[in-house]
Write a structure and sequence with these properties.
Blueprint (H helix, E strand, L loop, with lengths): L7 H21 L5 E4 L14 E5 L5 H6 L3 E3 L9 H8 L4 E3 L16 E2 L5 H13 L1 H25 L7 H4 L4
Parallel strand pairs: 1-2, 3-4, 4-5
Length: 174
């Protein structure tokens, strides 16, 4: 999971992952590992969990995406397009999340991402286990997620001229 932990939906998501989902996954498969990356974690205390690594800020996410089998994004509230989801899709990682994670992202469930609206830990854990147990399905999603992620990003850039800045105005953006 990747996020800014000064944002309540991200804190809720990692609390859900660490305290509710990982214990279920760990019982089913002790080799499953969760890595949490992002700024603002130092302000919060999380009880150490088996197979959970909290890194904080990293300069480059690519090595972590490359090592991952999937991207867990159990956002239960919040709004807008989630850059973390697009980044994971562009990295050809299957994303498993609730509908909130995919707001504003064009794509098909079980083709470009895996969306479940059963927001309980047992159902979410089962989605992860099933995804990891069916490598052929995941392989198709790896490919389709990457292509779809790029389509969404390119569409946003082409349709929203505010996102294109010249060098003079770029220095004024904070």
């Amino acid at each position: 999971f990747v996020g800014n932990f000064g944002y309540a939906p991200n804190l809720d998501a990692i609390s859900f992952l660490c305290n509710e989902v990982m214990p279920i996954l760990y019982k089913k498969d002790p080799s499953i590992h969760l890595t949490i990356i992002g700024i603002g974690l130092e302000k919060h205390h999380f009880t150490p969990q088996p197979n959970v690594t909290i890194l904080g800020f990293v300069e480059d996410l690519r090595p972590y995406y490359h090592e991952s089998a999937l991207f867990a994004c159990p956002l239960r509230f919040g709004s807008g397009i989630k850059n973390k989801v697009l980044e994971a899709m562009v990295a050809s990682l299957p994303v498993i999340g609730f509908s909130c994670a995919f707001e504003g992202i064009c794509g098909n469930n079980h083709e470009h991402f895996i969306c479940t609206d059963n927001c309980d830990a047992t159902s979410y854990s089962q989605c992860i286990i099933e995804a990891l147990d069916i490598p052929q399905k995941m392989e198709k999603i790896y490919l389709e997620a990457g292509i779809q992620g790029w389509f969404v990003i390119m569409g946003m850039l082409l349709l929203n001229p505010v996102l294109t800045l010249d060098r003079k105005s770029a220095s004024k953006v904070s």
